[in-house]
Amino acid sequence: MKTNKLLVKIGIAGAIAAAALVTTPAVASADPITDFLCSSGSAQFCPALLPPPPAPLAAPAPAPQPQGAPAPAPHQGGAFQYKNCDAARDAGAAPVYRDEYGYGPHLDRDDDGVGCE
Question: If you ran DSSP here, which 8-state letter would residue 102 be given?
């Protein structure tokens, strides 16, 4: 009699195991224990699904090449004059020659045609 009860218990346990196998989704996973725990309703054991990787972006534009001092603007009839030699040096224009953009007589102390020498 005891063996019959034992066989019935084993049969019930086998039926439960078979039902669990049939009802679980057929997803290939590296860890069957995690699949079992996740399927049991406990979300803490479910692996987080990663979003798909973003689409590759277009190649970045090449960086502009560094340049030296900006070229002085074309001569505008002597309208522009540097305020002082520091301003001419900061602009990269010193020394400033007569008939050049930015030249002014106040920059040429010895009146030789070269300012901020």
Answer: B
> Using CA atoms, how far apart are residues 46 and 27, in angstroms rounded to an integer?
13
Could you read off the pLDDT of 11-33 as tens digits, one per residue? 787 767 666 666 665 555 556 77
Q: CB within 8 A of 114, min separation 6: which ones?
A: 95, 96, 97, 98, 108
Which residue is it, tokens 């049969």? Answer: 11
Classify burial at 115, counting beta carbons within 10 Å of its beta carbon; exposed 0-12, middle 13-18, buried 19 or more: buried
Residue 82 has a CB neighbour count (10 Å cut-off) of 22
Enter the pTM of the model.
Answer: 0.33
Closest CA to 85 of 112, 103, 58: 103
Q: Name the token pair of 23.
A: 């009802």
pLDDT digits (tens, 9 = 90+) for 58-68: 777 777 776 65
